[in-house]
Amino acid sequence: MAATDTSSPRRPAWAWRVRRPHPAWLLLFLPVMLAVAWRGDTRDTDTYIEAFAQTLSFPSDPLGYYGSFGMEWGFGLLSWVFNGIGLGPVALFFVYSLATFWFLAIAARRVGLSLPAIAPYYLGSFFLLQQLMQIRQGVGIAFALAMLTLIPAGRLPLWKAAAALVAAACMHATAVFLLLGARLLHPTTPKPTRLRLLLWCGVIIAFSALAARAFMQLDVISALGRLSVYAVDEEYSAERSLLAPANIRAALLQLLFLIAAPPVLLQTRVYRLMVGLFAASLGLRLGFYDFLILSARLASALGFVEVLLVPMLVRAAVQQKGLRIAIATAYLLVHAAATLTLQAPYLIDDYLTPSHAAAAP
Q1: How far, in Å, CA of 310 to CA of 328, rounded?
Q2: Which residues contact 269 (CB under 8 A, 6 or more apart)?
Q3: What single-letter DSSP state applies at residue 111?
Q4: How far apart are CA 254 and CA 14, in angstroms?
């Protein structure tokens, strides 16, 4: 008998069953949220606090607000509300962190997992880089991830998709790419055979890399405002070797998602869709090799799906619970060490340094 395609991503037979409402799990991560709220002088903290302090009136012009502060309208609206009720930036950072974990809990539940089940695959890398620095991107991408889990089951009609896209844009611009990518790839998702999925991902990687190279050849970066600023910054516009550790890691994960997944997991539409999105992120990493900020930001926006893909794969392929726990623990420790030594060696010192903007009268 031919295998049937699992249309719903909510509770695959192989997955953890969420036995409690997802808000209960948030209490476990309260200390982490408080750590985000009382952040130190990380790379974006002063910018956030200064924008917060200046948003005393209703930001009626979303584009104008972005032009003034380089931040999306959602940050402006929340800053205005929190200023109006007498709460400071610490409370705002806490709400951002709470919302991020809330959206992650929703996404996990919709694929049959729980927030603690995906946490080890999030905390060691994405949490450190996003919530402690790029907090707007962190909440926007988590929201987009929760929304895209509805697409394979047909539970995100056009009007809801449009509303989700607007909401994502108000959180962070890169979140839009994750939702648009999911919408574009979903109609092309192949049937659940390993060969078709391999060929499909190969096409996606090639197309994404070529599209990135075509964009770089158009020479339009100087006209794109924020990107033009990054283009003249030596750190943000640096080249990344095609054999950089981040690229090799992404390629190995891509192979793992394709080769190691049991047939029952390949039958899950949301898994196949997210594998395609990860392939697009790998293609962008390769295509934007000569513009680090685009290679990192866009690739991480699409590649964020690994937060669900890896625990889904581990749960489906590894039967022993103790071994799954060992894998999750090792993943967390290795990625945390790599993030704090290679990607952001300054993060601990920055976090422990008091913010100048917070200390200013």
Answers
A1: 9
A2: 5, 6, 7, 9, 152, 153, 189
A3: T
A4: 21
The residue assigned the tokens 């192979």 is: 255
Q: Which amino acid is at 112?
A: G
Closest C-alpha among 52, 35, 14 to residue 360: 52
Helices (H), 218-305: 226-231, 245-259, 263-266, 269-287, 292-303
Nearest residue to 137 (alpha-carbon basis) of 102, 178, 173, 91: 173
pTM comes to 0.88
**Would you say 267 and 212 are in contact if contact means Cβ atoms under 8 Å apart?**
no
**Main-chain dihedrals φ then ψ at residue 264, nearest 5 degrees:** -65, -30
Q: Assign 40 to helix, strand or coil.
A: coil
Residue matched to tokens 């516009």: 237
pLDDT at 236 over 70: no
Contact 136, 174 (CB under 8 A): no
Cα-to-chain-centroid distance, residue 347: 19
The structure tokens listed for 53 are 């302090």
Residue 108: phi and psi, rounded to 5, are -60, -45
Please say whether the dihedral angle defined by the alpha carbons of residues 72, 303, 209 and 197, taken in this order, is positive or negative.
negative
pLDDT, tens digit, 9 for 90 and up, residues 255-274: 999 999 999 999 999 999 99
CA distance 356 to 347: 16
Taking all residues of the chain, what is their mean pLDDT, rounded to a whole number? 86
C-alpha of 166 from chain center: 17
pLDDT tier for residue 239 given thresholds of 50, 70 and 90: low
Torsion of CA 122, 119, 105, 174, to 10 degrees: 0
Token pair of 90, please? Answer: 């610490």
Burial of 182 (0-12, 13-18, 19+ CB in 10 A): buried
The position carrying tokens 């302090």 is 53
